[in-house]
TrEMBL record, chain A:
Family: Belongs to the ETF alpha-subunit/FixB family.
Residue stretches making up the Electron transfer flavoprotein alpha/beta-subunit N-terminal domain: 4-185
Domain of life: Bacteria
This protein's name: Electron transfer flavoprotein subunit alpha
Keywords: Electron transport, Transport
From TrEMBL, chain B:
Alphabetical list of SMART domains matching this protein: ETF (SM00893)
Record organism: Paraburkholderia hiiakae
Residue ranges of coiled coil: none
Domain spans labelled Electron transfer flavoprotein alpha/beta-subunit N-terminal: 23-217
SUPFAM superfamilies per record: Adenine nucleotide alpha hydrolases-like
Name this polypeptide is given: Electron transfer flavoprotein subunit beta
Homology family: Belongs to the ETF beta-subunit/FixA family.
Length: 319, 266
């Protein structure tokens, strides 16, 4: 068993950026193992993505033509398994995304590959590949090993690995997809709801509220506070799920990325992986939370352990 | 018509927790248990289907876990689940999510439900694996991260709205029976009534050992796992500059940081 296989991801004609991060992780794994990197791309016109995949560390790009262009879990599972059986890689790297949540586990269990998910570090030693992931709400790290597994499938946390900066000239080839009769049919995409006057990706200064506000009736005072201090009002998932603020305010994996943000005040937000995915890059993060152990304090530049209502009340008097 | 809902008793950690001597897990003395947040939504979705079908749906909740997990099953009974099943033996210690799914698959074969709902992930380890591993083991149609569901009990297909990254969704038609992993926000989970809680305390929980489901020793626990925890450790996490003092002093410092930033931004 030798070789590193990456299966990339695209949606509506766009290669998803996390795919390039996974290629970066594969290139690093190649450094430590000497194993060649093969990148597979599935789609109705897979060639369209090939140019973008010619990145440093990639030895081969495999185009796999499939009937449908949109993601289908059974198509990806069956093609990935056929690729593994043909190429016998020691390591298969996938992004940890909504799409792989649908097919990575069925892929691994049917052939008993070593398997873990949401890894943010990957090493190799005498015993084989070792993946590091979080446990107990990110309070600990867990090193995962795969005894006696010749092929290991690992999904990688977005934002944890760097995409290669340089290009290369890999071998280009095609792979014939096995016949698949999917038992689910993609019907269509739904675009994000119109954002109205809220522009999370464009905002330079965001004041964001989370579960810690407790009641819907408390939303209004933080809306006013954000206006008072000149910030755009953001929120974490539970606030949008409850319908207390429109989804356009939501920061995180399933919401918006605070792409232009320079200052982010997180009030009553514990800091899940999914929320951090949308804001951990911000240079000035200030977290206000009653729980000194909240994960948000591990990425914040400044922290205030305190009651968000008290702090908000006092803050108002300064503006 | 039967819907199987898989649930998990999740653990969060007390402050100042300690590791086991083998360094492979946090000592159970520091675990604080609860029902996985996602499971409230999965159960609620089943309850809605039951109510929409005038009650002609049996909801069976199942978990793989020790005695303490009965508490979480009772929470589900209190909300209106019809039956609760717990599967355990010491051989299941050291089971990874796939080994847990093998046990659930054996139970699903016995129960022969028309639909299986699981949470997208568990709040403790967030593997996002068990539900879809179960689908793979049963070789059933499946969809992950379902944030909207259009399904009439007994229908041959279900329409699922999968939540994607960045606020988008994809709609898929899935053949049934199917395994769906249910996302937060798909519904508003109900609270159990006091009467429901009282009644649930007296209701039986069916307990089974894996061998009663026909699972061989090689399929359970570490032997049925696809991964092994080598080591658990507390990471040297980044730490914010903590602003101390009274709320007034903390707010004053926060205000000056904002003004400093706003000044630079001009």
């Amino acid at each position: 068993m030798s070789g590193i296989l990456v299966v990339v991801e695209h949606r509506q004609g766009q290669l998803r950026p996390v795919s390039l991060e996974v290629i970066g992780a594969a290139a690093a794994a190649k450094e430590s193992s000497g194993e060649a990197v093969t990148v597979a791309v599935l789609g109705a016109q897979p060639e369209a993505y090939v140019e973008s995949l010619k990145l440093a560390g990639v030895d081969e790009i495999l185009s796999v033509q499939t009937a449908a262009d949109a993601f289908d879990p059974e198509t990806y599972e069956i093609v990935a398994r056929a690729l593994i059986e043909t190429r016998n890689p020691s390591l298969v790297l996938l992004p940890h995304t909504i799409d792989t949540l649908g097919y990575a586990a069925p892929l691994a269990v049917k052939a008993n590959y070593g398997f873990t998910t949401d890894a943010f570090a990957l090493t190799r030693d005498d015993a084989g590949w070792v993946a590091t992931r979080s446990g107990y709400g990110q309070k600990v790290n867990m090193e995962i090993e795969f005894p006696a597994k010749e092929t290991v499938v690992v999904t990688l946390r977005p934002g944890s690995f760097k995409a290669p900066e340089n290009v290369s000239a890999p071998t280009l080839s095609t792979f014939a997809a096995p016949a698949v009769t999917p038992r689910s049919v993609h019907k269509g995409f739904e675009e994000p709801a119109a954002s109205g006057d809220v522009d999370i990706p464009g905002a330079r200064f965001i004041l964001s509220i989370g579960r810690g506000i407790g009641e819907e009736t408390h939303v209004e005072q933080f809306k006013e506070l954000s206006e008072t201090v000149g910030a755009t009002l953001g929120c974490s998932r539970p606030i949008a799920d409850s319908g207390w603020l429109p989804k356009a305010h939501q920061v995180g994996q399933s919401g918006k990325t605070a792409a232009a943000c320079k200052m982010y005040i997180a009030m009553g937000i514990s800091g899940s992986v999914q929320h951090m995915a949308g804001m951990k890059h911000v240079e000035n993060i200030i977290a206000v939370n009653t729980d000194p152990e909240a994960s948000i304090f591990t990425i914040a530049r400044y922290g205030i352990v305190g009651d968000i209502f008290d702090i908000a009340e006092e803050l108002r008097s300064h503006f | 018509m039967k819907i199987l809902v898989t649930i998990k008793q999740v653990a969060s950690l007390d402050e100042d927790f300690e590791l086991n001597d083998d360094g492979r897990d946090v000592s159970a003395d520091f675990h604080v248990f609860d029902l996985n947040e996602w499971d409230h939504y999965a159960l609620e979705e089943a309850m809605r289907l039951k109510e929409g079908a005038n009650g002609d749906v049996e909801i069976v909740v199942v978990t793989v876990g020790p005695d303490s997990a009965d508490d979480e099953l009772r929470k589900c009974l209190a909300k209106g689940a019809d039956r609760a099943v717990r599967i355990w033996s010491d051989a299941l210690e050291d089971a990874d999510p796939v080994a847990v799914a093998r046990v659930l698959a054996a139970l699903a074969r016995k129960e022969a439900p028309d639909m299986i709902f699981a949470g997208v992930q568990a709040s403790d380890h967030a593997y996002g694996v068990t539900g879809m591993a179960l689908a793979g083991l049963l070789d059933w149609p499946h969809a992950a991260v379902v944030a909207g569901l259009d399904y009439a009990p007994g229908a041959k297909t279900a329409t699922a709205r999968r939540e994607l990254e960045g606020g988008a969704y994809a709609t898929v038609d899935v053949q049934c029976p199917a395994v769906l992993t249910i996302q937060l926000g798909i519904n508003t989970p109900r609270y159990a009534s006091l009467r429901g809680i009282k009644q649930a305390a007296a209701r039986p929980i069916e307990t089974l050992a894996p061998e009663e489901l026909g699972l061989a020793a090689g399929e359970t626990g570490a032997a049925g796992s696809l991964s092994r925890i080598r080591r658990v450790y507390v990471p040297a996490a980044g730490r914010a500059n903590m602003i101390g003092g009274t709320p007034a002093e903390q707010a004053a410092r926060l205000a000056s940081l904002i003004k400093e930033f706003s000044g630079e931004a001009k």
